[in-house]
Amino acid sequence: MKKKKLFAYLVVPLLALALVASGCGGSQGTSSGAGGDTIKIGFLGGKTGNHAHYGIETLKGMQMAVEDINKAGGILGKKLEIIEGDHGSNSSEAASVTQKLITQGVVAVIGDPTTGITKLTAPICQNSKVVMMSAGAVGPGVVEIGDYIFRDCLLDSVAAPAVTKYLAEELKWKKVALVTTTGLSYSEGLTSIFKPALAKYGIKIVDEQFIQEKDTNFSAQVTALSRKQFDGVIFTGYYTEGALFMKEMRKQGLKQVMAGGDGLLGKELYELGGNAVEGSMVYTGFAVDMNRASGKTREFIEKYKAKNKGALPDMFSAQGYDAVMLVADAIKAAGSAEPSKFREKLAQTKNWQGVTGNITFDSKREPIKSPVYLLEVKNHQFTVKTVIDIPK
Question: Same structural domain for residues 104 and 138?
Answer without folding.
Answer: yes
